[in-house]
Amino acid sequence: MRRVALLGATGSIGTAAQDLARAYPDRIRLVSLAARSNHEALIRAAEEFRVPRIALVDPEAARRARSAWKGGEVLEGEEALAALAAEDGVDVVVNAVVGGIGLKPTVAALSAGKRVALANKESVVLAGELLLGIAKRSGGSLVPVDSEHSGVAQCLAARPVSDVRRVTLTASGGPFLRRAPASIQDATPAEVLKHPTWSMGERITVDCATLMNKGFEVIEARWLFGLPPDRLDVVIHPQSIVHAFVEFVDGSVLAQLSIPDMRLPLLYALSAPERWTSELPRLQLLDLPSLSFERPDPARSPGLTLARRALEAGGTSTAVLNAADEEAVRLFLEKKIRFGDLMPLVEEVLGAHRPQGGALTLESILEADRWARARLHEAAANVARG
Ligand code: NAD
Ligand code: MG
């Protein structure tokens, strides 16, 4: 039995995790649930899974939850996420919150020696090296939920990275794969949010259209698998059937395939190294479209370019990259900036940053995060005025 704290329980990954808890009542027990503000959905889940403790980051939502639900305790505020993540009686923390706010709960869970099934890739983009150090000291572990990284981990099957020549992550290419970059400058949120193969939360869907999501995934792979960036490739694979390739030093290449459904990598993050029989939809080889692979076009993948630049600059640069992108995406979704402004704004903030080298601390990372958010808003105000 895995006792699970589910953070971000109301989102796309969070509801996939609820599906799994429903499908495996003898193996997965949800012991706590957290979300930002959707207290109604959180209470519904708490009732269904008889969860004794829930948390809402938004205090007003927490107040409403307390008057509507008498089935257990309601925590509130950002600190509640870390408190639930570190609690005794939790074996696995599924971190499925979106954004840099997911970092502290990851730190808390790892410090307490837990397994973190990590959907919140922002944690690693902000603080990959720091998290590895904590995990090493505490005995905690980071298990990827991201489909590509789950694919890599499955192909690696615990072989050392010295056996690996190259890892290749696939990218769908997003909604604008075949559009001329000049024609998408004024793309609306509604157009950007129509992803061809995956159904996901808003922020990651926008990040797929700029390829920033794939850039984050290169950073994530760099830390999770200990591979230098020049051994991490990206190929465009519009069908999203192959999630990753691992080429070993002898020339053999293993790939991981499945239909695009996040419940599968999430299931593996919970079951690993075991495999649990599932009723998830199967890959039907004979019904597959032909699978194609192409090189990313730099003009259509500015986010990937910026992420590689941040990774090379090192230190606090990747934290700045995430923070600037997070704020820029929010402004875009609020229709305050154009789609075409997104990456130039992030680039401006990254260019203005003087990365702090040496051993990073949680505080120096969060300081860089705050700086980048403020700087992004200044830059966006100039764009809006101009
Ligand atoms: P989503 O927007 O659907 O859900 C986000 C969840 O986080 C919600 O439960 C929400 O209540 C919570 N949340 C949002 N802001 C919060 C805050 N300030 N404090 C606390 N909780 C907050 O997002 P999603 O698509 O489920 O993505 C979640 C994470 O998983 C992201 O890091 C994303 O990059 C990653 N991920 C998602 C997918 C996918 O298929 N959806 C695939 C790979 C990785
Ligand atoms: Mg992914």
TrEMBL record:
1-deoxy-D-xylulose 5-phosphate binds at K121, S147, E148, S172, H195, N213, K214, E217. One of its GO terms (molecular function) is NADPH binding. InterPro entries: DXP_reductoisomerase (IPR003821), DXP_reductoisomerase_C (IPR013644), DXP_reductoisomerase_N (IPR013512), DXPR_C (IPR026877), DXPR_C_sf (IPR036169), NAD(P)-bd_dom_sf (IPR036291). Residues 4-128 form the 1-deoxy-D-xylulose 5-phosphate reductoisomerase N-terminal domain. It comes from the Bacteria. Mn(2+) binds at D146, E148, E217. Pathway: Isoprenoid biosynthesis; isopentenyl diphosphate biosynthesis via DXP pathway; isopentenyl diphosphate from 1-deoxy-D-xylulose 5-phosphate: step 1/6. Residues 257-374 form the DXP reductoisomerase C-terminal domain. Its cofactor is Mg(2+); Mn(2+). NADPH binds at T10, G11, S12, I13, N38, N120, E122, G201. Residues 142-225 form the 1-deoxy-D-xylulose 5-phosphate reductoisomerase C-terminal domain. It holds the Pfam family DXPR_C. GO terms for biological process: isopentenyl diphosphate biosynthetic process, methylerythritol 4-phosphate pathway involved in terpenoid biosynthetic process. Keywords: Isomerase, Isoprene biosynthesis, Magnesium, Manganese, Metal-binding, NADP, Oxidoreductase. It catalyses: 2-C-methyl-D-erythritol 4-phosphate + NADP(+) = 1-deoxy-D-xylulose 5-phosphate + NADPH + H(+). Belongs to the DXR family. Catalyzes the NADPH-dependent rearrangement and reduction of 1-deoxy-D-xylulose-5-phosphate (DXP) to 2-C-methyl-D-erythritol 4-phosphate (MEP). This is 1-deoxy-D-xylulose 5-phosphate reductoisomerase.
